[in-house]
Amino acid sequence: MTSLPEPLPTCATPLLEIDVLRTFVCIAESGSFTRAAQQIFRTTSAVSMQIKRLENLLGCSLFVREARRIALTDDGERLLGYARRLLRLHEEAVGAFIAPRLNGRVRFGTPADIGTHILPGLLSQFARSHPGVEVNVSVGRTIDLIQRIDAGELDVALLSVGNAGQDDTRGEVVHSEPLVWAGRAGGVAAERTPLPLALATPDCAWRRLALHALDRVGRPYRIAYSSEQCAGQEAAMIADLAIAPYPLSLVKPPLKRLDEGPDLPALGDYQIKLLRAADRSEPAEELSRQVIAALNVYRK
């Protein structure tokens, strides 16, 4: 009896994990391991490990890590096109077989400072996981968002509040971090008298906490720059025109945290609260759950 020939050895093709490719694209598009980690609700160390595994799998470096930026290598640029196509194909394939569990609309409100720094990744992931839900986002002042919740115009809203805020009895605390004095590294704005400040509108929690603290110690100040958006405050600080009260997590180079002391008193904690309408849908509850999960990761 003639025996069959042994099969020729084959080299197994490495498998690219969709989750890792999504992380890779997030880093490439955000230009930061930290921002990508916030967007996909992982720690920065977990994201770094994913990329290290991907680089080992492909046998090449994908990013050039410099002091203040992350850039793609030539191999990283090549992979980016493939990764985007694979992610689109994956979503198309899943969508062809799995009908959306949730359907409907969620009307979501957020202040600009939260919406700019935390929510883009969250809303992108929610759209992927619940394609049948339409999310309408409104950006506005906390006081206006509360009024719209009460009027039935919003289902869920995030609120910026401070220890002295008028909204402390409303909503559930989902994020808390120190509010600090910030200014340009090497700048001289903090040494001027009266102290030049970059502040938002009078109802802003950061503004209330800062002015209350300065009044308490008798430090003379002037409002040198006023803007409804935290990006405006940031521009004034970078130009060394003023200093500002800022959440610690938002203080990035070329800004720095200024030393607190008799002339720059501690500001306490800045809080984010989640306020839900009394009559809300299942999609609104699911978005609320994901918002809380995202802010828990952001806090870490």
TrEMBL record:
Kindly give the InterPro entries that the UniProt entry links to this protein. Answer: LTTR, LysR_HTH_N, LysR_subst-bd, WH-like_DNA-bd_sf, WH_DNA-bd_sf
Chain ranges of the HTH lysR-type domain? 16-73
| Pfam families given in the database record | HTH_1 (PF00126), LysR_substrate (PF03466)
Q: Which UniProt keywords apply?
A: DNA-binding, Transcription, Transcription regulation
Task: Return the similarity comment.
Answer: Belongs to the LysR transcriptional regulatory family.
UniProt-listed PANTHER family: HTH-TYPE TRANSCRIPTIONAL REGULATOR LRHA-RELATED, TRANSCRIPTIONAL REGULATOR
Q: What is this protein called?
A: LysR family transcriptional regulator
Please give the organism.
Stutzerimonas nitrititolerans
Q: What taxonomic classification does the UniProt entry list for its organism?
A: Bacteria, Pseudomonadati, Pseudomonadota, Gammaproteobacteria, Pseudomonadales
